[in-house]
């Protein structure tokens, strides 16, 4: 990540971010923005006009007492404010529209981009952190477009018109009044620079907070069962305090320009009163022009002060832009190669050839694995925890790229076929059951978008789920709530089996599908799995050997190395480690 403290690059970097934001997201709304710019010019002119109108008010009405001027001047003042009001309304509706569109486009883009990223990225990033990019950061960007950048144009234009008016009224007085301006520029830039860093920290703290909250709400059962309410409350409270102190630091920094700008404004106005007042007393200047000038000057300081603060605001919002664009710039490592072809499944035989694999920055997890998984048969992976079973399984749908060697399905290297076709021929059922906050029907149809009701019911029947679904209040249309918490573990697993059933993929990966279930649910799920596995190439990971002892082939993996291959009865004879594993599970059962 680029740091903001490297001052020479910062202004360039700021402009790069703004350019990217405007070019990629504001450009499609150019028409709206042009119209908004026109209304901004009208607003700026209407803001300056009252200062000019002061001149006839003083000279014609108060000094010369011309009664004929009273109504026209009054009407002009009312007219100016009316025009300003209408123009401001149009301008804020237009910029609001553009800002909301930019948010919507950015959120869609960000999600479409992230969803293509590697699984590894999601495993290493908390969901709360990702969510905060979509909420906190994107909202800050909206303020950048609708608030800060718009005000930059509006206040900038107003300022220019006021300065022109002052020079028109009295160039010498204007030069004296504005000499203080350059003095304000340096501190304002400095504040802005520090602001980017401080707000980056605030946003990161917010992301951590979102993460903490979602973990706490998801793990409420655990928190309550362990009596951790107080500890969790303390953790949240610590985070809230952290955000408070960082936000306060940002507020202090953002407000630091106020005393300086007020003081400089006071000095300029003081000098003008001294010099200009003297001229009116001497008779070289008329009071109307002087009042018009001093009104313009006082009014100039308002947009000027806002502009001084604007840099700090902008830097705060650009810290968010930086975080969002950093995500957008991520390039997934697992993508189709240029010459990728769709996979052609014949029988669904899987071969691992001399596979080495390591997670990033870690030592090897799999070492020189060579293995053949027969088509249409069931192969079980067993072995001690952390041995590499799930890792091996994850290489088949290419969730990770191998470090060395090849994974082949029907003699086609998985890294050379299209990911879409590869994953469409694989169905995965794992112990971690993911159900969406939708109807039972939609959750099953997830396995085959557009599936008919008949196909859904057939899949549910085959997964031994039809009966319990029919007993639900609205049958297949029942909303199952977030992650199906209203269903039992076994019911949820049978829904996920129905989902795999409807996908009708030739290759089936089962990652401990029954390990989280009690014996009664397990039996029903086993029954559903047997139907699902029929005729498919199945690779199943199991902790309990009893669930896989009928497998056509069992592979014992330990510390990333294949220790033994064979059927249950063969392994009992040939592998001491397997026999011991079997023995220990048997005695566990006896104890139970
Ligand atoms: N995403 C990951 N990033 C880094 N290391 C990982 C990741 N996933 C697993 N590992 C490590 O790789 C090794 C093998 O893990 P793996 O999950 O494949 O084992 P396993 O045999 O399936 O274990 P278990 O039976 O407990 O599920 C372990 O040391 C684990 O800590």
Describe the overall structure:
- This protein has 592 residues and is an alpha/beta fold.
- The chain has 2 domains: 14-328, ABC transporter type 1, transmembrane domain (ABC transporter transmembrane region fold, Up-down Bundle), CATH 1.20.1560.10; 348-425 and 537-592, P-loop containing nucleotide triphosphate hydrolases (Rossmann fold), CATH 3.40.50.
- The chain is built from 20 helices and 10 strands.
- The strands form 2 sheets. A 6-stranded mixed beta sheet has the order 6-7-8-3-9-10, sandwiched between helices. A 4-stranded antiparallel beta sheet has the order 2-1-4-5, with helices on one face.
- The chain starts with 6 loop residues before the first helix and ends with a helix.
- Adenosine-5'-triphosphate (ATP) is lined by residues 123, 359, 362, 365, 385-391.
Can you summarize this structure?
This protein is of the alpha/beta class and 592 residues long.
Query: Mean pLDDT, nearest integer?
Result: 86
Q: Could you give the count of β-strands?
A: 10
Overall body shape: elongated
Q: What's the Cα radius of gyration?
A: 35 Å
Strand content: 5-15%
**How does the helix and strand content classify structurally?**
alpha/beta
Q: What molecules are bound to this protein? A: adenosine-5'-triphosphate
Biggest beta sheet attributes: 6 strands, mixed
- What percent of residues adopt helix (DSSP H or I)? 55-70%
Oligomer: single chain
Poorly predicted runs: 1-12
Question: Please, what is the CATH homologous superfamily of the largest domain?
Answer: ABC transporter type 1, transmembrane domain
First-last Cα distance: 55 Å
Widest sheet, order of strands: 6-7-8-3-9-10
Q: Please, how many domains?
A: 2
Strand and helix order: HHHHHHHHHHHEEEHEEHEHHHHEHEEEHH
CATH architecture of the largest domain: Up-down Bundle
User: Counting H and I runs of at least 4 residues, what is the number of helices?
Assistant: 20
**CATH topology of the largest domain, which one?**
ABC transporter transmembrane region fold
Coiled coil: 304-331
Domain ABC transporter: 350-584
Protein name: ABC transporter permease
GO cellular component, one term: plasma membrane
